[in-house]
Amino acid sequence: MKGLEAKGIRGPFALLGVDLAVRPGEWLALLGPNGSGKSTLLRVLAGLLRPGEGRVWLEGKPLRAYGSYPRARLLGYLPQNGPYPEGLLVEEVVRLGRLPHQGLWGRERREDWEAVEWALEVTGTAALRQRFLGTLSGGERQRVLLARALAARPRYLLLDEPTTFLDLEHQAEVLALLRGLSRMGVGVLSVLHDPNQAALAHRVAVLKGGRVIAEGEPQAVLTEPFLRSLYGPQVRVRLIEGRPHVYLDG
After folding, report:
1. pLDDT per residue over 177-229, tens digit each?
2. Distance of alpha carbon 25 from the chain centroid
3. Which of 165, 196, 204, 227 is the most buried (most CB within 10 A)?
4. pLDDT tens across 127-136, in order?
5. Domain 4-248: which topology?
């Protein structure tokens, strides 16, 4: 079966039994209060953490059956934070995304350079290519790290708060990019905090207390009664052109 699927994921940490699937060509936004297990779930789906119970399937095979390079060719992962190569140039950082395709000797081919150029272009980071990663602003760094994940040309993309540190213009560009990637057949799972950003996705899932408590199309999930039960009575929802718009009253 095509897709990335979690079945009965219990543990580590906050996860208490999660079933979730990302299909090719769709964008799934994952919402939830702090501490609900969103980042942990992404790490399980990326193969970086092993669940205490349950299993992750990738295109019909258990994720653990894949070697690290075959898995990295299929799955791109952008964590919320982590150790990054501050002393490398932006272009060198993005080229790291091609390592899973280059084999033991790391020989670069034309398709590697083309993928790097494409990733730099679509993330708006081509002008930064000769800057060191450690000299960039938080927003610039975020876009470069997204470019590194995209350079692998993965079939599935796992993004933990990809709009963090970005100004409004670049938030809009990244969200449009995610929609565009899904149209290209990529399955996208993004952790987001803003319900209005999540409303742009094809589907929304809400994680609370280590479980998925709601899942479906944005207009079915992002309702005022549900969001008020999740975030408080000040939340209001208005439909604008059929899409939920979430705001705070007063």
Report:
1. 999 999 999 999 999 999 999 999 999 999 999 999 999 999 999 999 999 99
2. 14
3. 204
4. 999 999 999 9
5. Rossmann fold (3.40.50)
- Provide the angle, in degrees to the nearest 10, between the axes of the packed helices 138-151 and 110-122: 150
b/e 104-120 (16+ beta carbons within 10 angstroms → b) = eeeeeeeebeebbeebb
| pLDDT at 106 exceeding the cut of 80 | no
Quote the DSSP letter at residue 135: G
CA distance 70 to 92: 22
For residues 105 and 112, the answer to whether their CB atoms sit within 8 Å is no
β-pair type (75-78, 156-160): parallel
In the predicted structure, residue 250 carries a pLDDT above the cut 90: no
Give the span between the Cα atoms of 190 and 172, in whole angstroms.
14
Which residues pair with residue 158 across a beta bridge? 77, 189
Distance of alpha carbon 153 from its chain centroid, rounded? Answer: 14
How far from the centroid of its chain's Cα atoms is residue 229's Cα?
26
pTM for the full model? 0.94
Residue 40 in tokens: 């942990």
Q: How far apart are CA 98 and CA 159, in angstroms?
A: 18
What does the domain layout of the chain look like in residue ranges? 4-248
